Amino acid sequence: DEYQPPATDIITLTRHVLQEGFQRQKKGAASGDLTILLSSLQTTCKFIESNVRKASLINLIGAAGNQNVQGEDQKKLDVLSNEIMINALKASGKVAVLVSEEDDEAIIVGERQPGTTFETEKGKYCVVFDPLDGSSNIDAGVNIGTIFGIYTVRDGSKGEVADVLRPGSEMVAAGYCMYGSSANLVLTTGNGVNGYTLDNAIGEFILTHPNITLPNRGKIYSINEGNSAYYHEPVLKYLESIKYPAEGSGKKPYSARYIGSMVADVHRTLLYGGIFGYPDDKKSKKGKLRLLYEAFPMAFLTEQAGGVATTGKGRILDVQPESIHERCPVFLGSKDDVNDLLKFYQ
Ligand code: AHM
Ligand code: MG
């Protein structure tokens, strides 16, 4: 084979986000603030990634009985990730409200106090996030990730909880970073979906998956079938239909893949197609996944990639949240697959 030199004109996330920002600014639709916020978010992902990579090594030290000078035990990775995000987002000066899975209450960012040198300004964005999702997978070294969604404060609001108690369709951007065999950041600003891979040597996310588009149909289903005893009829019937296709239908049974990290299960679904689900059932009346910072961002990405995201009864992005940590049933993925499921709900 002929020698292929490595690419020298790489598109980094920073470059891509800046370019998109310029486009918005040309249309008079942007101030550059979202660009700065996204830049801050990608830094948090790199910081969390670096901690995820060395987690077992740090825990080993902890297991040997080491404590810090205050006598505190090792911080858990999810708490650490939460602090990383809150500090960086506050410092960006672009946020007014933060909602994290790790904190019971929303954080309302205050005005800067006159005379203080600390650079915290209040901005016009609200960020909802799960700093480290899938944490039950940490100790086994299985993929985990950070999920985030971004709203703009409502006109006239200084930033309050009501600014995030809005349907996902009002989000201006959403994404996740998966910490797997590589770190992959997947992002939408409402203009399609792009995926970037972290090149650790230069510390930049590189555009490796431009314009991610779901195939209309996949061959994989992804659901915790261990909950079957609690599932409602439509889910059970649908699962049966894909596992035992009618004779003579020419259809083949689907493959099962379930990691138990939403970021990883959704990432695979975006790339390969198929269906991912975490339904409501007799035990979990509203399912398990959180509406604001799990269901909404993933539904936004799925729709932007040409897929469908539903609760079984309606579009996820149309759900009106009532509280910041509420749960929501989730099915998302390839158009034809999700529509097949919906037939069992009708
Ligand atoms: P977490 O926020 O406590 O980590 O829980 C969310 C995770 C998702 O990543 C994943 O889709 C789901 O829980 C898996 O749940 P289960 O173990 O019940 O299948
Ligand atoms: Mg979570």
UniProtKB/TrEMBL annotation:
Any one GO BP annotation for this protein: fructose 1,6-bisphosphate metabolic process
One Pfam family, short name: FBPase_C
Record's subcellular location: Cytoplasm
Domain Fructose-1-6-bisphosphatase class I N-terminal, first and last residues per copy: 11-210
Keyword line: Carbohydrate metabolism, Cytoplasm, Hydrolase, Magnesium, Metal-binding
One GO MF term: fructose 1,6-bisphosphate 1-phosphatase activity
GO cellular component, one term: cytosol
Broad EC category: hydrolase
UniProt EC number: 3.1.3.11
Domain Fructose-1-6-bisphosphatase class 1 C-terminal intervals: 214-345
Main location: cytoplasm
Pathway recorded for this protein: Carbohydrate biosynthesis
Catalytic reaction list: beta-D-fructose 1,6-bisphosphate + H2O = beta-D-fructose 6-phosphate + phosphate
Similarity annotation: Belongs to the FBPase class 1 family.
Quaternary structure and partners: Homotetramer.
HAMAP family hit by this protein: FBPase_class1
Protein name, per record: Fructose-1,6-bisphosphatase
